[in-house]
């Protein structure tokens, strides 16, 4: 068993560093590079508002620090345009970019390296949760959890995403393990370490506040009457942690309207109950199996749902409340505040699996317990033991297959936008002397720039995605006189997922013919052109 788990761990590490530059560097990745380099979207808009033709290289300068921007500029960029994102990861990325580099592969190398910290943090948490409590005499559930996380297609995907989510996985595990450790050894140093891990978690991602609430409910329920000293120490530690986080809370409150603009997409679109249910089941299933192929994913995810429900049932029936309550609270407190508003008021808060990472970790802990308690039980019948061994092999095999398939793909489900960039880049790069015209959002243009040759010329009137007026319907395309465009071999127009109002304005333009040649990759944009070939009617 130990040799099997070592192989699984090595495969998980291998997949985390395979083809880092392969998948499209999508909107969120590009915005991370913008922030970590110390720039704002507003600066990009202002720089390219002069209606002059520039190269892709000039646009790319906003993806790489030039030595003039410091961590202070990074924090100011976030505070001004993205206050819903705390600055810890972006500060680390700025240091990484300045020291190591900021190419696609190097930008993604940082979260991949951070994701390796998941293994010691998982080890610590499982030791505190399963071994120190006396549920297991061996470290089997610890190694099982590490193995399941190592080759989980979900964890591998987000280990290669140039965002803070791999770090959030680490800090969530770390703060939860530190809490259990502090409760067990009851020293000031241990509670001080919990405070530190809580602060790190909060400064990584705002939804870490839900993890802190889960911790608080756990301590209140388990130790409220029996151990007043533990309750007092927890309250002091958590209060101190939140006080240290107050500066960013103040930043978020001062820039509340800006934060709402950045999160506007979670409120303006809604899904029906059946669609939400299918997505929630996908979230759970994709922890273990994800080849992005229907109907295979559909059926496998529903089988996995039955296994997950049974795992939580066994966990609650067979373990003391001090064990199962923590896992249940991690799963529920971090998920229900997103799911319930979507059901009642509409919205898409719970549609993104990355927002419910603590809940997915709780699911993996429950599955590891179920496998461990059956594999470590010598009194089980021979066929019973073989069944659980086979189930472990099937879970691991499905995860490895998923990682192998995903590693060869340029786009996956976690890349919500810009899947068409590969096709757009191939078409434009094949021409001899192209010009690209666009009024798309800064993030989409920066993302597209990674698919274009450096010598491609561009004429931009970009807009900021967080502008007060909804930018998606505003037509700002500047079309120069026909004679100015005749020196280019080919002229293209790019717009990501244009709205009907924008398309109507495009149809009113005179002297040019617009031929759609690439359509959107995402399901909601498949009927919307993303790239047009522009030809002169007068020339024809």
Summarize the structure.
With 540 residues, the chain is α/β, with parallel strands linked by helices.
Q: How does the SSE layout of this entry go?
A:
Layout: H1 2-16, H2 27-36, H3 41-47, E1 53-55, H4 56-60, H5 71-81, H6 88-99, H7 104-115, H8 118-131, H9 140-150, H10 153-159, H11 165-185, H12 188-202, H13 208-223, H14 228-254, H15 256-262, H16 265-268, H17 273-285, H18 296-318, H19 321-333, H20 336-344, H21 357-375, H22 382-407, H23 421-429, E2 434-438, H24 442-449, E3 457-460, H25 482-485, E4 490-494, H26 500-507, E5 512-519, E6 529-536
Parallel strand pairs: 2-3, 2-4
Antiparallel strand pairs: 1-3, 4-6, 5-6
Note down, in words, how this protein is organized.
By secondary structure, this protein is an alpha/beta fold. It has helices at 2-16, 27-36, 41-47, 56-60, 71-81, 88-99, 104-115, 118-131, 140-150, 153-159, 165-185, 188-202, 208-223, 228-254, 256-262, 265-268, 273-285, 296-318, 321-333, 336-344, 357-375, 382-407, 421-429, 442-449, 482-485, 500-507, and strands at 53-55, 434-438, 457-460, 490-494, 512-519, 529-536. The chain has a 6-stranded mixed β-sheet with strand order 1-3-2-4-6-5.
């Amino acid at each position: 068993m130990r040799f099997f788990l070592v192989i699984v761990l090595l495969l998980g590490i291998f997949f985390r560093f395979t083809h880092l530059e392969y998948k499209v560097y999508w909107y969120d990745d590009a915005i991370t590079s913008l922030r970590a380099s110390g720039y704002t979207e507003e600066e990009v808009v202002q720089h390219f508002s002069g209606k002059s033709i520039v190269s892709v290289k000039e646009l790319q300068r906003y993806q790489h620090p030039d030595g003039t921007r410091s961590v202070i500029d990074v924090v100011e960029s976030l505070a001004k345009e993205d206050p819903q994102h705390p600055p810890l990861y972006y500060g680390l990325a700025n240091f990484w970019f300045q020291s190591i580099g900021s190419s696609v592969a190097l930008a993604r190398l940082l979260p991949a390296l951070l994701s390796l910290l998941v293994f010691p943090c998982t080890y610590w948490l499982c030791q505190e949760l399963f071994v120190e409590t006396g549920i297991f005499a061996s470290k089997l559930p610890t190694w099982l959890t590490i193995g399941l996380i190592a080759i989980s297609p979900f964890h591998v995907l987000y280990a290669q995403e140039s965002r803070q989510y791999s770090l959030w996985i680490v800090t969530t595990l770390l703060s939860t393990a530190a809490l259990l450790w502090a409760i067990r050894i009851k020293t000031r140093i241990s509670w001080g370490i919990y405070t530190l891990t809580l602060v790190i978690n909060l400064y990584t991602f705002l939804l870490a506040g839900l993890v802190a609430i889960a911790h608080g409910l756990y301590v209140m329920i388990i130790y409220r009457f029996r151990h007043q000293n533990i309750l007092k120490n927890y309250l002091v530690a958590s209060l101190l942690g939140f006080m240290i986080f107050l500066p960013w809370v103040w930043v978020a409150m001062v820039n509340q309207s800006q934060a709402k603009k950045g999160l506007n997409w979670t409120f303006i679109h809604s899904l029906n109950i059946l669609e939400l249910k299918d997505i929630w089941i996908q979230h759970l299933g994709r922890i273990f199996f994800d080849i992005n192929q229907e109907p295979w994913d559909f059926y496998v995810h529903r089988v996995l749902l039955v296994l997950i429900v049974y795992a939580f049932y066994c966990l609650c029936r067979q373990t003391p409340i001090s064990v199962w309550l923590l896992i249940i609270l991690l799963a529920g407190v971090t998920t229900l505040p997103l799911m319930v508003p979507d059901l009642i008021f509409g919205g898409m808060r719970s549609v993104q699996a990355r927002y419910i990472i603590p809940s997915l970790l709780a699911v993996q802990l429950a599955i590891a317990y179920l496998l461990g308690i059956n594999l470590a039980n010598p009194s089980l019948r021979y066929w019973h033991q073989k069944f659980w061994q086979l189930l472990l092999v099937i879970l691991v095999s499905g995860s490895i297959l998923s990682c192998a398939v995903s590693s060869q793909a340029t786009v996956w489900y976690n890349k919500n936008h810009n899947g068409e960039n590969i096709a757009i880049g191939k078409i434009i790069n094949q021409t001899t002397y192209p010009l690209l015209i666009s009024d798309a959002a800064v993030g989409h243009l920066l993302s597209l720039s990674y698919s274009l040759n450096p010598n491609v010329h561009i004429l931009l009137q970009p807009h900021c995605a967080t502008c007060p007026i909804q930018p998606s319907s505003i037509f700002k395309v500047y079309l120069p006189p026909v004679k100015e465009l005749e020196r280019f071999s080919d002229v293209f127009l790019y717009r990501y997922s244009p709205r009907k109002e924008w398309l109507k304005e495009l149809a009113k333009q005179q002297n040019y013919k617009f031929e759609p040649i690439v359509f959107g990759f995402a399901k909601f944009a498949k009927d919307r052109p993303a790239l047009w070939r522009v030809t002169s009617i007068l020339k024809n």
